[in-house]
Specification:
The protein is of the alpha+beta class. The chain is built from three helices and three strands.
Length: 89
């Protein structure tokens, strides 16, 4: 299942990653380039494992650490209510 941002959450690419805006609350989040890579992968239909693989391909990070980083990002996005259904895929 493809991950989606909740209705009312806008995203915009920036020179430094991705900006997310919760239009309901007015809160925003700036995702750095590594988090942006993960989010793009997931929004394009990739799995968390595929997102972690992309991190290890692009950056000098071990697979276990990349997997933890992906889970932490998903947990944070879910806790902030930015994902459809309110949680990680």
């Amino acid at each position: 299942m493809t991950m989606r941002l909740r209705a009312g959450v806008s995203s915009a690419e920036t020179d430094y990653g991705i900006m997310l805006l919760d239009e309901d609350s007015g809160r925003y989040w700036n995702l750095n380039p590594t988090a942006a890579l993960v989010l793009r992968t997931l929004l394009d239909g990739g799995t968390p494992d595929q997102a972690a693989d992309k991190l290890t391909e692009r950056y000098a990070v071990e697979a276990a650490a990349a997997g933890r980083d992906v889970r932490e990002l998903l947990d944070g996005l879910g806790a902030a209510g930015l994902l459809e259904g309110g949680g990680a895929p």
